[in-house]
Every structure is written in C-alpha cells, then in structure tokens.
Specification:
Structural class: alpha+beta
Number of helices: 16
Strand content: 15-25%
Distance between the termini: 56 Å
Number of strands: 24
Length: 709
C-alpha cells in the first residue's frame, strides 16, 4: 500500500506477520538475560482449608533449586485491587489449585522437580462447588460485571406473559468454559536497584504496572511493563494474573531475572473462566408474532475470593421491542476458582439462551425465525430508551439470508437429509456494545520524511500495530510505508487493555487526534525539520469517556448448516455464515480474521467445549487440551464473514465499532437452532456432544440408524 486513498479499510497485511512466521517474534517467556532463573508454582491439593505445614527441604536439596517461596517467607505485598493476586500471603486455601508455593531454580526442569518435591500438609474443610438454581446461598448482587444493574425492566412482564396467546417458558444450561490461549500466561521480571522491568503476556501493560506498583510499593515511573507479542488471551490476560506477581516476587527474592510460565493444566484454576450459567427465558407474543413480554433470569457462580457476576441477561435489554421486560441476575458464592472475562462475557452465553428461545417461539408461532426477529425490531434501545447511533440488524439478517439461500429452506424439522444423516439450518442474531476509553498517544514527524507513532496498544494477534498505522497514515495523508509505530510499552503512556472490543476504538482515537494535531503543527512550520523532528501528544480523557446520548452497539446475523448422524449422534457443521454491522471496517483482512475466529470459537462452545467441576475433588475435570476440546480446521467445511457498510458519526473519529467479540455472540445459538431443525429435538444444554445428541434421539423414539430413512 503506497497510496493514501484507500489506506483505511484496505486489506493490509499484518506488520508483525513475518516475525511470527519466521520465529523471531519474542514472547514473554523468551526474553533471556544473564543469570535468568525459572520458577514453577505449587498448587493446593485440597478444595478448601488451610496449610498447616510446608517441608521445603526435599526441594532445596535438589540440584539447581535456588529458593522455595511459601506464605512463611514470601515478600509481603500491599493490598491488591484484585484479591486473586494476594499470593503466598496466608495459609488460607480458598479452592483447589490456589498457589501455595513457588520453586525457583536454574532450569525449568529443576524448578518443576522442586515443586513436585515440596511437601505440604493441610487441614481440609468441607466444600461446595455445585451450582444449582435454588442454591440457598444464591443472592441478587447490586451489579453484574461491567457495572450493569443486576435487575432491570419495565412494564408488567408477568401479567403480560400470562395473557399472551403464545408463550415459551424454557431453561438453558451452559457449562464452565475456558480461555486456553495458544500462549499460556507467562512473565519475565528483573530488578535493577529500585527499578523493575517486566515482560508479561498481558492484554494491557498499564493495568499490570498499576497493580505491581500497588503490590510492591513502587512509584509507577520505576516500573516498565512490555508485552511485545502476545499469543492470545480471550479476556484471560485482561488484568494481571499470578504469573507476573510470582515472577516479580521471585526476582526480588533471588536478585536474578526470573521467568514464570504457567503450565497449561494449572490455567483453569488461576486465570479465570467463563462461569456456568443457568438461564430461564419466558417469552410471550401476540398472534402476529410481536413480543408482549420478555423475562430473562440468570443464575451463575462466583468464588469466595472475589465477586464476579457474568452479565448474561444484559443482551435482552438491547435486542427486541417489547412493552414488558425484566432481566435479573443471581449469583452463588462457591469454593471454586474466580471466574473472569472470556470473549464476549455476558453477551455470548446470554445471546445463546435468548436466541434459542426466540427460535422456540418461532416454532410455536409457525413463523420464519428471520422474519420474527425483523418483526420485533425496536425503534430505540428497549432498556434505556436511547436512540441507536446506528442499528442495521435487519440488513444483516436479510443479507445473510440471501447469501445463505434461506428462502429455499423447508421449515419442517427433520425434513432434510438422507439415510442416517439429517440436515438442518439455523439462524441467530448477535449484538455487542460499543466501548471506548481514554488513551494517550504521540506522533512525530522525522527529518528523514518518516513518522513515528507511539501508543501503548497491545497486539494480542488482532493486528493492532497494522490498523493503528493505517489510522495514522490516513490522518497524516501519507503513504502507509512512511509510518513507523511503537506499541505495548507502559513507558509510552496510559492506554486501555485490548479487551471489550474497545482497543482499536480507544487507541485509534488517540492516534488519529495526535496525527491531526501534528499535521496542524507541520502546516505552521517552514524550512527543514529540526534534528528531533516535530511532535504532537494527545490524551483523549474527557472526550473518549464522555457520556453519549446514543445507544451504541454492533449487530450481526449468524447462519449455520449442520448434519446430524443418527447412528453416532455426531453433529457436523458444514457451513457457518455471518453478516455484521460494525461501523467502518478499518482493515478488511484483519476484520474478516476476527469475525471468523469468533464464529469458530462459538462453534466450539456449541459442539465440543465442556468443563465440569468435580463435586468430590473440587477441581475442573477438563484442565488441558486433551480433555477440553477446541475446534480444528476439520470441524467446519466453510466459514464466511461479510459486513454491511455503516456510516456512524457518533462513535469515534474513524467511525468504527469493535469487532473482536461479536463474531462469537450468535454462533452457538445458530448451530443449536440448526440441530433442532435437523432433528426436531430441542437440546437445551451445551455442548451438543454425540452422547447427548444420541441419547436425545433415542429418548424421542428415533432408533439409531433409522431416523431420516
């Protein structure tokens, strides 16, 4: 790309692509330094209780072991903002897998052997890890994740539901889910006097620096946090995690650089998970298919360490016009690891349940599910009454139906297929809020004719370097190859994390403003540039975080085609198609990648991803990729992502909306609805594994191998 006329929106290749495919891109655990040591944590072996003794002698006797940190000798930390980071500070064990020790050694192998040699004794206490809707400890919190009110609504939903001629009253269950990024959580830390440098696999260096300053009693300007390359996070790296705190503690204790790379099997217990959610949906409609009542109630779990409430009922406040609405969250504190963010928290499980219930309503009404959604399109946001800044869900539904060939669909469940294979198709809508935060950025014109843009964005594989460079080139009016960019360094200045589909909107706003300001300064300058160039700095505080009079959301429509094998119960997805309305698309190549990645992750949620908390043991039974199954290329034959053009002036200078999460939001529901269309059976618990599907087929009187013949 050498011109400027199409730089924003063009399918530009990722700037770091060559480094990644050649292996020269360095991740947090790969920053070597003289004398670097390795550390391995010791997880608690009881589901609840306290440590009564630690024998470190066998570990210290092993060759290469340098130190063993426990609650008895670890550095004392300040009060953390996040209680999950109060590591090695007390003998209390809130859940199985909580770290009770850390072994530091010359090599990774020695550290692992040392951790296995530490002998810990416990006083175990009774525990409860089982979520049920009527759990006696369940309560209604003040807010759910994100600060959303736990309860919201208007009208008389119960009365309207009771008087509705068509009603569905259904329950759905979604199990715990795990982020499992390709690169496990890792940090390398070292001290130089009273200055601390950390390479951390994190979605945001500013948040890590702030928390380390609080924990270790340092001014923030003495801490540098870098996240040059991050191998995925899906929310689990959105805040500091135990690896970075343990690495800094070990470096402080030994006086050497230390790397802590968490073993994958330890991740489910210490880096967060998508909490299980139990949903009850009650939808009422009149004879014409217009909703008269919507009630969405969610029960979820949290840990006893920190309250985290999955905001899964919130999407129902956005989606459909209804004169009567109630959404409610309940949460139960259990002896489980603390849940946290996972791609599209709230919207992903909430929209699975809502869009499945809407499909059930369409069946009850005998109405096409696409048309039912269109018929209930609201004029304003149902919960707040605010006008939408832009809302093109209807266009997404109609364009998706056209591309998918929806008009050729036989609406009768179980009518498609031949022999043992049944074929079905399904649809679901998607939504995700537009979020943006203040950010600092700078732009500098250099004497050599180039430009240097600095913004503390974190590229977690989404193409942040590339898209921010495109924004800069567009604002400067120069070819893209004249723009260099520095990212992922806390010394650059404050920046929000790569999360909430808000990264590009936040960083890009600051980059755009810095480049516009620089352009103005250059226009006033005459003659050669000084040796240091000319610079402009921007902080978007007060603008990016200003209250908006508009309801700002992205929308989308998902379509899925599946085959169901009536002999084995196996579900195969043969087609996934998504059409999205997400403002101005800033890079067609990276945008399509993000949409498809989200859709595929939703496919895993629908068919393969499943986790259970063992009632007796108190731990997640599926703790690695051998038991927790994520989709592979062979699991779907065709994935297509498209979008409709949106011109929305109420967002940011680029007119863009976040795209990292909306791709997952409706994907699982579309697959589930397609399975119902194929079989005529409504499965209301995910994932749709062969054993669950085959059992359902047999229970509904369909002998294996005979259905569909």
């Amino acid at each position: 790309m050498t011109g400027t006329e199409t730089v924003l929106g063009a399918p530009v290749e990722r700037r770091e692509g060559r480094e990644k495919v050649t292996g020269t891109a360095r991740y947090a655990a790969e920053f070597d330094a003289p004398g670097r040591a390795q550390a391995w944590p010791v997880p608690a072996a009881v589901a609840r209780g306290r440590v009564t003794g630690v024998d470190t002698a066998p570990a210290l006797a092993l060759p290469g072991v340098l130190a063993v940190l426990t609650h008895e000798n670890a550095p004392r930390l300040g009060d953390p903002d996040d209680p999950t980071l109060a590591l090695l500070q007390s003998p209390h064990v809130p859940h199985r897998g909580w770290f009770v020790g850390l072994v530091v050694a010359e090599t990774l192998e020695a550290a692992r052997a040392g951790a296995a040699a530490v002998r810990v004794t416990y006083e175990a206490e009774s525990h409860d890890v089982t979520l049920t809707a009527p759990h006696p400890e369940a309560y209604v919190p003040e807010t759910a994740n994100g600060g959303f009110p736990a309860v919201s609504g208007h009208g008389d939903p119960d009365g309207a539901f009771a008087s509705s001629p068509t009603r569905v009253d259904v329950e759905y269950r979604i199990p715990p889910l795990h982020n499992h990024p390709m690169e496990p959580h890792a940090s390398t830390a070292w001290w130089e006097g009273d200055r601390l440098t950390v390479h951390s696999s994190s979605q945001g260096t500013s948040a890590v620096r702030t928390e380390l300053a609080r924990l270790f009693g340092l001014p923030e300007d003495r801490i540098t946090v870098l996240s040059e390359h991050v191998g995925g996070g899906f929310g689990s790296k959105g805040t500091p995690r135990p690896d970075v705190v343990l690495a800094v503690m070990a470096a402080q204790e030994t006086g050497r650089p230390v790397t802590v790379a968490l073993p994958r099997r330890y991740l489910p217990a210490v880096i967060g998970h998508r909490a299980p959610t139990l949903h009850r949906l009650r939808l009422g409609a009149d004879a014409g298919g217009r909703l008269t009542s919507v009630v969405h109630e969610v029960t979820t779990h949290t840990s006893r360490v920190k309250e985290f409430v999955e905001q899964a009922a919130v999407p129902a406040r956005v989606m459909y016009a209804t004169p009567a609405l109630r959404t409610l969250h309940r949460v139960t504190p259990l002896d489980v690891p603390t849940p946290s963010w996972m791609r599209a928290p709230g919207e992903c499980p909430g929209m699975y349940a809502l869009e499945s219930a809407v499909d059930e309503l369409a069946v009850e009404l005998g109405m096409d599910p696409v048309e039912l959604r269109i018929r209930n399109e609201p004029d304003t946001e149902p919960d707040s009454g605010k006008p939408f800044s832009s809302r093109h869900l209807v266009e997404c539904l109609r364009e998706g139906a056209r591309r998918f060939g929806w008009e050729d669909r036989d609406p009768r469940p179980g009518a498609g297929g031949a022999g043992p294979l049944l074929v079905g198709t399904g649809v679901a809508a998607a939504t995700y809020p537009v979020m943006v935060s203040p950010c600092a950025a700078s732009a500098r014109a250099l004497p050599d004719g180039g430009f240097l843009v600095r913004v503390n964005a974190t590229d977690i594989g989404t193409g942040a370097r590339t898209v921010c460079s495109q924004i800069a080139a567009d604002a400067l009016g120069v070819p893209l190859d004249r723009v260099r960019i520095d990212v992922a360094d806390s010394a650059i200045g404050f920046a929000p994390m790569a999360g909430g589909s808000s990264g590009t909107a936040s960083w890009g706003w600051a980059v755009h403003e810095a480049c516009v300001r620089l352009t103005g300064r250059l226009a006033e300058h005459s003659g050669p540039l000084p040796d240091g160039g000319i610079a402009a700095d921007v902080d978007t505080s007060g603008a990016a975080d200003a209250e908006s009079p508009f309801a700002r959301h992205a929308f989308g429509a998902h379509f899925a085609e599946v085959t169901v094998d009536t002999v084995t119960g196996e579900v195969r997805v043969t087609r996934l198609l998504g059409v999205f309305a997400a403002g101005r698309i800033l890079n067609a190549r990276t945008a399509r990648s993000q949409f498809i990645g989200g859709m595929t992750m939703g496919l895993g949620m629908a068919l393969t991803e499943d986790s259970t908390v063992d009632p007796a043991f108190g731990d997640f039974a599926e703790s690695d990729l051998a038991s927790y199954h994520v989709p592979a290329h062979a699991d779907v034959a065709s994935v297509e992502a498209h979008w409709v053009d949106e011109d929305d002036a109420h967002l940011n200078p680029m007119g863009s909306k976040g795209i990292g999460e909306i791709g997952i939001v409706g994907s699982a529901a579309a697959v589930g609805n397609a399975v119902h269309h194929a079989t005529g059976i409504r499965f209301r618990e995910l994932p749709l594994t062969p054993d669950r599907v085959l059992t359902g087929l047999l229970e509904h009187g369909h002998p294996a191998g005979m259905l569909g013949t």
